[in-house]
Write a structure and sequence with these properties.
22% of the residues lie in helices and 29% in strands. By secondary structure, the chain is an alpha+beta fold. One of its GO terms (molecular function) is DNA binding.
């Protein structure tokens, strides 16, 4: 799911930084826009709009980009990352996150500076379904954990009946099944989401600083 929309200045700045990071990686790897599109399965126009800060990608599209470029997904969010080592410990203090906004969701990405993670934790803010614009279900390799922090959430699963969750309730599922989240009430809802990769990528390019 992608979107091109009118943005406020902070959101525009965030998308511009993300686009600059993608262009930097593509150039460093000696790839053209067409190369990235062919490797990731995204349209050339989509890759171009992301690089120009005109389009935000959802998590599954970022996964496609990372797989196509053979890099850690965290490298798309943070230029200077540190590999998470066996026995390692990382602490995120309150307010320490990377903000990523799409048309439908606002994500607060936790530990974006850690590469080679097997999990991607994030907080999310969901608007009511009537205020969201879905074109398709989201799906990606791995497993997903959802915990409702505030409000009520409706989870739409491809081929299954919707699941409604209240604050304090959670859901664990195979994220290869298409899924969508939305607030089930008139107010925004807050969630914690943890996505796991389907195993660490066996082929990950080493990006120089």
């Amino acid at each position: 799911m992608t979107t091109e929309a009118k943005l406020s200045s902070p959101r525009q700045d965030q998308r511009i930084r993300m686009g600059e990071r993608l262009r930097e990686i593509r150039t460093q790897l000696g790839l053209t826009l067409a190369d990235v599109a062919a490797r990731s399965g995204l349209a050339v126009s989509t890759v171009s709009k992301v690089e120009r800060g005109l389009m935000a990608l959802t998590y599954d599209r970022f996964n496609q980009l990372a797989d196509g470029l053979e890099i850690d997904i965290a490298a798309l969010f943070s230029e200077h990352g540190d590999p998470f080592q066996s026995g390692g410990i990382a602490v995120a203090r309150k307010g320490e996150f990377l903000l990523h906004e799409t048309e439908n969701y606002t994500y607060e990405m936790l530990f974006p500076e850690l590469w080679n993670k097997t999990m991607t934790p994030m907080f999310g803010t969901l608007r009511p379904y009537e205020q969201m614009h879905f074109e398709r279900f989201v799906d990606h390799p791995g497993e997903e954990f959802l915990y409702v922090l505030e409000g009520s959430v409706m989870v739409y699963l491809d081929g299954k009946a919707p699941v409604q969750l209240q604050a304090g309730e959670s859901l664990y599922f195979d994220s290869r099944r298409g899924h969508l989240y939305a607030s089930a009430g008139p107010e925004n809802a807050r969630i914690l989401v943890v996505c796991s990769d389907a195993g660490l990528r066996a082929k990950q390019r080493a990006l120089t600083p």
